[in-house]
Design brief:
Structural class of chain A: mainly alpha
Low-confidence stretches of chain A: none
Strand content of chain A: under 5%
Distance between the termini of chain A: 34 Å
Radius of gyration of chain A: 17 Å
Mean pLDDT of chain B: 96
Number of domains of chain A: 2
CATH class of chain B: Alpha Beta
Number of strands of chain A: 0
Number of strands of chain B: 15
Bound molecules: iron/sulfur cluster
Helix content of chain A: 55-70%
Low-confidence stretches of chain B: none
Oligomer: heterodimer
Shape of chain B: globular
Helix content of chain B: 40-55%
Strand order of the largest sheet of chain B: 1-2-6-7-8-10-11-15
Shape of chain A: elongated
Number of domains of chain B: 1
């Protein structure tokens, strides 16, 4: 039942995913289902919301992936949004002192990435 | 059984991980306990414990290590390939190996520390006073919240007993090692940001409570070190555990530069800081004995810790 909802999303003609995006969505679905058995319902709600307010399949995809990233990495993805201008990788595994940034930027980054 | 490969190997921490300067002693291998995260389960065909008997080879390796090194202090870990106190045979090998190390350490003027790590209460049966020249034995036990032990460490003894063994070990003359590892986020109260925050806060509270209980009962001067480390999983472990729908596969884990999955950085540093700050402000003398295991140098720095090795901590102990 839950898997069917996932298939419905992945095969929908209202949204376009690349192969690797599909894999990421499937993997996230599998991991999250360990902690929330009715994750399919959750994903489907996000899908409906993303497709309803979008002008194209690509816009819908971006919105939906954004929601999946937020579900999968609730803490890090919030941090990444705060650090948008620095173009930092999602894993946040870096030594901020080696980023070649001004001291005040390094301080700001440290404050963001070292606490939830 | 005779061991064909080396008994003593320098610990390989992995790319970019702070080197704690430990040697692994493979005097025995395997373990029949059921820790869901144990790497032995993923690399060994049989779980039946094996003890190696050809200690003449071990002695040669100790001699060669000491005679070829100018290093004065050595840190050996006998808890990597098995549980150090698993069976009575393990007791014997500990004593025999410590004797060999002691003789060679005297000869080459070395000072040695041997970590014996366990999740058993078998030390109550061991029950003999420990005293070796130039060798100090460290009785180290993993301190985990009872919910984590019940869920992920099948067959091991409860936290209450682990704490009792530390007190007993001290009486027998061991130094003690508090091992807050692997730290596992459990229970997980939901998948949203606020749920993760709550789960992490609950975890930190649990560890603070454990530390409070332990530190009221043991002598600080006998504590060799306190190590802290969050759960790490290899790619293979992560894949297999995910297929089994194990709750160890937390959703916010990333593949780190050393090829291991870990909780995300904000989560790890929050956990570490929650525990380290508690020790720093409540038991300041213990602060310098804290180490992070298997972590990157930037994580140490962001937890306010000076990078140090087990050898350096051992030198502080004496
Ligand atoms: S007690 Fe140690 S060696 Fe034994 S299964 Fe658990 S982690 Fe592995």
């Amino acid at each position: 039942m839950q898997k069917n909802l996932l298939e419905k999303i992945l095969n929908s003609n209202k949204i376009h995913f690349t192969f690797s995006e599909k894999n990421f969505i499937k993997e996230s679905f599998d991991i999250l289902s360990i902690f929330l058995p009715d994750i399919g319902k959750f994903f489907y709600e996000k899908f409906v919301k993303a497709t309803k307010n979008s002008k194209s399949k690509f816009e819908a995809k971006n919105k939906f992936i954004d929601e999946v990233l937020m579900l999968r990495y609730p803490v890090s993805y919030t941090k990444i949004k705060k650090l948008k201008k620095y173009k930092i990788g999602l894993t946040l595994e870096f030594d901020e002192n080696k980023l070649n940034l001004a001291e005040k930027d390094v301080k700001f980054i440290k404050n963001v990435v070292n606490k939830i | 059984m005779n061991r064909k490969t080396c008994f003593i190997t320098k610990y390989q921490y992995g790319d970019f991980i702070v080197d704690l300067d430990e040697y692994v002693l493979s005097l025995a291998t395997n373990c029949m306990f059921g820790c869901e995260y144990c790497y032995l389960k993923f690399s060994k065909i049989t779980l039946e414990p094996v003890i190696y008997e050809n200690l003449d080879k071990f002695e040669q390796e100790v001699t060669s290590l000491f005679s070829n090194s100018t290093q004065k202090v050595f840190y050996f870990n006998f808890g990597e390939t098995t549980d150090s106190f698993l069976t009575a045979k393990h007791f014997n090998i500990i004593t025999d190996a410590a004797n060999i190390i002691s003789q060679q350490a005297k000869k080459y003027d070395k000072s040695c520390f041997v970590e014996l790590r366990t999740k058993t209460n078998n030390i109550f049966y061991f029950n003999k006073k420990i005293c070796f020249e130039n060798v100090k034995l460290i009785y180290a036990t993993s301190l985990s919240p009872q919910v984590v032990i019940d869920r992920f460490e099948h067959g091991t003894v409860p936290i209450k007993n682990r704490i009792e063994t530390l007190i007993f070990a001290e009486k027998l003359g061991f130094l003690t090692g508090l091992r807050l590892e692997p730290i596992i986020i459990y229970p997980i109260y939901g998948i949203e940001y606020k749920d993760v925050v709550f789960s992490v806060k609950n975890l930190i509270d649990n560890y603070q409570q454990i530390l409070k209980t332990v530190l009221e009962k043991i002598d600080f001067k006998n504590i060799h070190s306190i190590t802290i480390s969050c759960l790490r999983l290899t790619k293979k472990q992560f894949k297999e555990l995910k297929q089994k729908k194990s709750k160890l596969c937390f959703f916010e884990m990333f593949l780190c530069p050393d090829g291991k999955y870990r909780y995300s950085r904000p989560i790890r540093t929050t956990i570490y800081n929650g525990i380290i700050d508690f020790i720093r402000w409540t038991y300041p003398v213990l602060y310098k004995k804290i180490l992070l295991s298997f972590e990157f140098d930037y994580i140490w720095r962001n937890c306010g810790l000076e990078i140090k090795s087990m050898v350096e901590v051992s030198s502080m102990v004496g």
